[in-house]
Amino acid sequence: MAEVTIFGKGNMGKAIGGNFADGGNAVTYLGHSDRPETLGDIVVLAVPYAALKDIAEKYVAQLVGKIVIDITNPVNFDTFDSLTVPTDSSAAQELAQLLPDAKIVKGFNTNFASTLLSKKVGDAQTTTVLLASDDDSAKETIAQALSGSNLAIVDAGSLKRAKELEELGFFQMTLAASEKISWNGGFSLLK
């Protein structure tokens, strides 16, 4: 059992937290004004991209050695036509620079809250969570913590893959926003 702290009490935070709880883990949710004394073994940043820097700066000491999952997609919401990070980087890679002593993992950003709740993409396919990190043990710890959740967990490679995951997450969001797919749809991997 892991102790999981989730920054964010919105739809994504609750959906992710529910899956960790299904795996038998203890889950704590934090809102914007909460100031925790301690953080869990796994910390999920279920917040907008713009909040990452502030959280990293406030909690840099408390996040040393922790597994930190970045679920953000750094979308330019003014144009809804691009990402706001440099083309050779990602939000997760930026976070890794801010938190050099944490184990940064990109995950859940290619999922919609509804698919994390139903455990299905569309009517039939199991929801797949893609994890990218330079720390293989962090990805394995997350997979073990989610083992009772009925989600498919796939190792998507190194943290460099966060760039592609963020592009995929953004692409999926644009499809749903333009009603080409539903918010219950998305991508799933078949083996």
Oligomerization status of the protein chains: single chain
What is the terminal-to-terminal distance?
A: 28 Å
CATH superfamily: NAD(P)-binding Rossmann-like Domain
Q: What do we call the CATH topology?
A: Rossmann fold
Tally of distinct domains: 1
Tell me, what's the shape? globular
Major pleated sheet:
7 strands, mixed
The CATH architecture name reads 3-Layer(aba) Sandwich
Radius of gyration, whole Å: 15 Å
Q: Could you tell me the mean pLDDT?
A: 95
Low-confidence stretches: none
Pairing-aware structural class of the strands and helices? alpha/beta
Q: Using DSSP, what is the number of strands?
A: 9
CATH class: Alpha Beta
Tell me what the structure shows.
The model has no long low-confidence stretch (mean pLDDT 95). With 191 residues, the chain is α/β, with parallel strands linked by helices. It has helices at residues 11-22, 52-59, 91-98, 113-118, 136-145, 162-177, and strands at residues 3-7, 26-30, 42-45, 67-70, 103-107, 120-121, 125-126, 128-132, 152-155. It contains six helices and nine strands. 31% of the residues lie in helices and 19% in strands. The strands form two sheets. The chain has a seven-stranded mixed β-sheet with strand order 2-1-3-4-5-8-9, sandwiched between helices. It has a two-stranded antiparallel ribbon with strand order 6-7. It has one domain: Rossmann fold. The protein starts with a strand and ends in a 14-residue tail after the last helix.
